[in-house]
Every structure is written in C-alpha cells, then in structure tokens.
Amino acid sequence: MHRLIPRDEHFAELFAQFADYLLDAAQKLAALTEQYDRLEERIAEIRSIEHEADVVDREITLRLERTLVTPFDREDVHALSSRLDDVVDEIQAVAEAFVINGIDRPTPQAIALARVLSAAASQLHGALHRLGTFKGLEAHLKVVHELEHEADGLSRAAIAALFSGQTDAMFALRWREIYAGLEEAIDAMEDSGEVLERILTKR
Fold it and tell me: Which end of the chain is more exposed for a tag (fewer CB within 10 A), N or C?
C-alpha cells in the first residue's frame, strides 16, 4: 500500500537549484555595486536569473500539489520556497532601483551591504546543498545569522547618516529605498535559514 502513495524525493535537488540562482543573483548585485558599469546589461542578467528562480518556485508548488509524502513537512517546503523567492525578488528590485532612482555611483555603505548579502547567499547556498542529507547545515546557518546582525548595524548607520541633516532630502529618500531593499533581502535569507533550522529540529 505504501508504494501506491505518491512520493517525491527530489525537493532537495530543486532547492539546491534555487540556491544556485540565489547565489548567482547576489554575486551579480555585488559586482554591479562594485564596478557600476553596463547597468542595463547587469540588471537584465539579474532579471533572467529571477525568471529562472520563479520556474523552480512554480515546480516546487506543482510537486507539492501532486505529492502526498514529502521529505519534510509540507508547510516547511512551501515556506522555504516562498522565502527564497523573496530573496531573489528583492535582489532584482534593488538592482532596478539604482537606475530608477538615477544613482550616479553607489555609496560605500551600499557596497558593504551588497557584499554582506553575497556572503550570506554563499552560506545559504552551502546549507541548501546539504539539504538532501541534513548534515552540515548548522555551521552555514550560524554564519547567516551573524551576517544578518552585521547587516542590521550597517543599515542603521547608513540610514542615520542619510538623515543627519547633511544630505539632500531627495538623495536621502532614494538611498533609504535601496538600503531598505538590501536589508530586506538579507532578512529574507535569515528567514530562509530559520525555516531550515525548523526542518532540522523535526528530524
């Protein structure tokens, strides 16, 4: 009877693929802030990655609908996919905000936050690629949390500097949007890590 129950063991493979796209997008955003050239081309590349990530997200949803037995709880499968999708969406939004807001060059704070984002993506990538065996995730997730705390401090300092009275109001509003987007992407990565931690506690 158990063999008649639809079972899918390939969710871990899909999440590993999702991780590849997420890391690629984060690295490309960091490169955009550091080199700040060929903006339309760089943003188009990030949009393409976001599209591919959406395909994986939809495939995970379809598999959930047709599978009765999943390798971990269904709500965790959905939550993890949703949060990873949020990360890639935020990365695309931040990349586009540079052009939309007419940014001449990135601030040192934006470059620093993008680097933290890329570093966190690398750690989350490592954790997701170990989801098939559930071994060795904890060290990666610990660093994701540490990087999120570092990003919080960077973001608070950056936003405080914007409204210190020494910057133009429009400049401040434009950069607040970009700093907030970078922080939200990093927060979504930490949320993804928390879903993974929840999965581990249920093993």
Answer: N
Higher pLDDT residue, 101 or 170? 101
Q: Which domain holds residue 133?
A: 2-201
- What are the Cα distances from residue 108, in Å, to 3, 49, 170? 57, 26, 18
- What's the whole-model pTM score? 0.93
How many domains in the chain? 1
Q: Please, are residues 145 and 186 in contact by the beta-carbon 8 Å criterion? A: no
Name the residue among 115, 118, 107 with its Cα closest to residue 177: 107
Write out the two tokens for 23. 């890391």
Residues 29-73 have pLDDT tens digits of 999 999 999 999 999 999 999 999 999 999 999 998 888 788 889
CATH of the domain at 18: 1.20.58.220
- The residue type of 200 is L
Mean predicted lDDT score pLDDT of the chain: 92
